[in-house]
Amino acid sequence: MEVSSDKEYIYSSTELDRYEGQVIEDVKASSQESIPDPDAWLEEELSRNILLTTVDAIINWGRRSSLWTVSCFPACCAIEIMAIEGPRFDLSRFGMDILRASPRQADLMITAGTLTWKMAPNVRRIYNQMPEPKWVIAMGACGISGGIFRSSYSVVPGYNKIIPVDVYVPGCPPRPEALIHGIRMLQRKIARTPVVPDLPELPLKGKQE
Ligand code: SF4
After folding, report:
1. What's the pTM value of the predicted model, to 2 decimals?
2. Which residue of 79, 111, 172 sits with most ligand 1 atoms within 8 Å of its CB, as the best mutation to test the pocket?
């Protein structure tokens, strides 16, 4: 049954009731057979359904593909963090769209800004509260060395004076593309990190990104 599109119903009419009944009848008529099991492929030949990898590779794949950044952006480099989180650069592509307000739910610190000695104990506390494994990207000249404020009595000359840094991204501020490059470098580093400590670093296989 056709219902004219230019007719507006305020209350249910007989015509509308008939139309709704017809829709139900149509669904009923086309739903007499069971929908095939979407997991039927599991019953195919077993050898075609097995992927082999190592525990290290699969764990590191999960770790590098779901880095959650703790909110700790003390100065102007934070503006570039805001840009990178937007649709143009789309950090969601790397599983990184969640900025955590709690360090206990984060495994990455991006040091987006000048750090003063007054703030240093708090930043170190945030880092200490992050669970292992965790990583740090020193973003911008201030994050790497104190930048133009390096000689100031109040500025920490680089985050690596208070916490270990994994990747350095220079610039004042670095462009979002540079930060993405740093993130990709960190992902490669994570991929090569042994899951069980004290084992030698894994060789990098395949094409380098
Ligand atoms: S590197 Fe430049 S943009 Fe970044 S916090 Fe320092 S002064 Fe600001």
Report:
1. 0.71
2. 172
